[in-house]
Amino acid sequence: MENKELLKMAEKARENAYVPYSKFRVGAALLGKSGKVYLGCNVEIASFGATNCAERTAVFKAVSEGEQEFEKIAIASSNDEETFPCGICRQVLVEFGKDLKIILGNTEKNIIKEYTLNELLPHSFTKEDM
C-alpha cells in the first residue's frame, strides 16, 4: 500500500477522535503484514492519565484481532504538517519491531515523510533486553 493512501486513511480516522479538552485530533492507520489496516484515534478522558493515543488504539485493536506483525503506521493530526508519536506510543510500537515504518504528514499539503521506528527511538528497551 502506498504511503499516501495509508495517510489518507489516518486522516479519515482522525475524524472520530474524542478530544473535548485539547481539541487536538489524531488518527492512525496501521498496516499489518496480512494487508489488513487497523484504524485508531485518540480518546481523551477527564483524568488525563486514562487518555489513549491513536497509535496505541490501532495497535491494541490489531492485536485484539490476532495480528502482531506490522509493516507501517501512518499518523495524521490536526496539526498542519507532521506529528510524531509520543514516547509511550514509540515504546508500544517497538514491541513489534524496530523496522516499522512511520508515515507522517498532511495529504492536502502534499507533505508525506517516512521514518523507521529505529530512527525515532534508537536506543529502545525491547524484549531482547529482558
TrEMBL record:
The keyword Ribonucleoprotein does not apply. It catalyses: 2'-deoxycytidine + H2O + H(+) = 2'-deoxyuridine + NH4(+); cytidine + H2O + H(+) = uridine + NH4(+). The keyword Lipid metabolism does not apply. Keywords: Hydrolase, Metal-binding, Zinc. CDD domains: cytidine_deaminase. One of its GO terms (molecular function) is cytidine deaminase activity. Residues 1-128 form the CMP/dCMP-type deaminase domain. It is an enzyme of class 3 (hydrolase). PROSITE patterns: CYT_DCMP_DEAMINASES_1, CYT_DCMP_DEAMINASES_2. Its EC number is 3.5.4.5. It comes from the Bacteria. Its cofactor is Zn(2+). InterPro entries: APOBEC/CMP_deaminase_Zn-bd, CMP_dCMP_dom, Cyt/Deoxycyt_deaminase, Cyt_deam_tetra, Cytidine_deaminase-like. Pfam families: dCMP_cyt_deam_1. Belongs to the cytidine and deoxycytidylate deaminase family. NCBIfam families: cyt_deam_tetra, PRK05578.1. This enzyme scavenges exogenous and endogenous cytidine and 2'-deoxycytidine for UMP synthesis. This is Cytidine deaminase. It comes from Acetoanaerobium pronyense.
